[in-house]
Every structure is written in structure tokens, then in C-alpha cells.
Design brief:
The chain is an alpha/beta fold. The chain has eight helices and eight strands; from the N terminus they run βαβαββααβαβαβαβα.
């Protein structure tokens, strides 16, 4: 059955990183379409990895004029084809707040009749405001209303980029646990780069962390880092 995955979260949560990892992993044996619905934030979009996505056979839809130095909140009409094309998996990378989620809301009439839809809310509790329980709960409510979809699960992607240690994921565990207790949601993934994610898995097993708030331990690659070659090509 065709699967739709919606990845949403506050600025700096790592939602785009997760969306890319889900897409690349699924593309190993399935047909994948990635929809970049981030028409709000001009930086760190999944569209920036078009070359890599093309090489992996992943079809990309993105806002008009993206990566051209022009920021016009315009989405191509061909995005509607994702509801009828032959992809096995369709992933939506949605703008990082309630305003960004509005772009998703226009597709409710298609999504409401699809059974296999999963919406993931990504939390990085090392980001400003996301370290506060009330903020996360409020943001989940706002993006749910604006995006016109219900959130199914949360993702612990707590990190400090290259400075990440296992302490970040442990603190993130505590935050997503509290969010789930307050909302009734579950944890889908705890994500992170190696070797930190393996260190966290070992810590969770040895210290009896509740599997309900760990979810699947999901190693990810960092695709959105700013290497020198890409800086000279595209800037910050």
C-alpha cells in the first residue's frame, strides 16, 4: 500500500534531515517522491540536495524559484500528482511552524481519504523554546490546526550538530516522554548520527529507559551540513 509520511517540526528541529534520511533509505528498494513544502524558511531545505536525490532516483517537488535567490511562496500545481503517481512512498517536508504548515493544509481533501498517512512531529530540545514543555504542546496544536492533519507520533532528534553527545539524546528522551504523557502521542524514532546514537541505545538498555519513549533507534546521516564546496556554489 502506498505510504505518505509528513515530517513537521519547529525551526532547527532537524525535520529536513529526517525527511532526507527517510527518503534515501526508502529509495533503496522502493519508488520515492519527496515534496519540499517549506515555503517559509529559505535555508536548509531538502531541495538543496536535488543532485543527490536525483542520483538516488527520488522524485523531488519543490516551491517555485527555490535555490534561485528569489523567495516567492509558490507551489507548482504538479505537486497534486503525488496522489496519483506510482510512488510507493511520498514524504512531505513541511515548513517549520504553524505558518509553514498552512502549505500542507491545502491538500487535506486528498489526504483525508488516505488510510496510510503518518505525521511525525520532530523535537530538538536543545533549540530555543523547544526545551519548554508548554511550547512543544502548543506548537503541536498549532501545526495540527494549520496543516489540517493530526500528529501521529513524535521524534526525538535532540542534537547540537557536531557537538552532540549522548547527553543531548538523554535530555531529549525526557522531553518527548513529557510531551507524550501530556498529549497521548507515542514516540516513533530516536534519531542521531553514529557513534552517539549507538551510545544512546546502549545507555537506554542498561538504564531501563521506557521503550515507549525511545521508539525505534534510527541512525541518520547528516546531509544538510555546510561543506566548503557547497558553500562556494550556493552560499549559506
Amino acid at each position: 500500500m502506498k505510504k505518505y509520511i509528513i515530517v513537521i517540526g519547529n525551526f532547527g528541529s532537524g525535520k529536513t534531515e529526517l525527511a532526507l534520511n527517510l527518503a534515501f533509505n526508502a529509495a533503496k528498494d522502493q519508488k520515492v517522491t519527496l515534496v519540499d513544502l517549506d515555503i517559509i524558511n529559505p535555508y536548509f531545505r531538502s531541495s538543496e540536495r536535488k543532485k543527490e536525490l536525483d542520483a538516488a532516483g527520488i522524485r523531488l517537488f519543490s516551491p517555485s524559484f527555490v535555490s534561485m535567490g528569489v523567495e516567492v511562496p509558490s507551489l507548482p500545481a504538479e505537486i497534486y500528482s503525488v496522489f496519483s503517481n506510482d510512488s510507493d512512498v511520498v514524504i512531505f517536508d513541511v515548513g517549520g511552524d504553524a505558518a509553514g504548515a498552512i502549505a500542507l493544509g491545502q491538500y487535506k481533501r486528498f489526504l483525508k481519504d488516505i488510510e496510510n498517512v503518518e505525521t511525525l512531529y520532530v523535537i530538538n530540545s536543545r533549540r530555543p523554546f523547544s526545551c519548554e514543555l508548554d511550547f512543544n504542546i502548543d506548537m503541536i496544536g498549532k501545526v495540527t490546526e494549520a496543516g489540517r492533519v493530526g500528529v501521529n507520533a513524535v521524534v526525538n532528534n535532540t542534537n547540537l550538530s557536531q557537538e552532540t553527545t549522548v547527553r543531548e539524546l538523554i535530555d531529549g528522551y525526557d522531553m518527548v516522554r513529557r510531551v507524550c504523557e501530556a498529549t497521548g502521542l507515542t514516540v516513533k524514532y530516536t534519531t542521531g548520527c553514529e557513534p552517539v546514537i549507538s551510545e544512546f541505545k546502549k545507555y537506554a538498555e542498561e538504564n531501563g529507559l521506557d521503550p515507549r519513549y525511545v521508539g525505534e533507534v534510527y541512525p541518520i546521516e547528516r546531509y544538510m551540513h555546510r561543506d566548503w564546496a557547497r558553500f562556494t556554489e550556493s552560499g549559506l
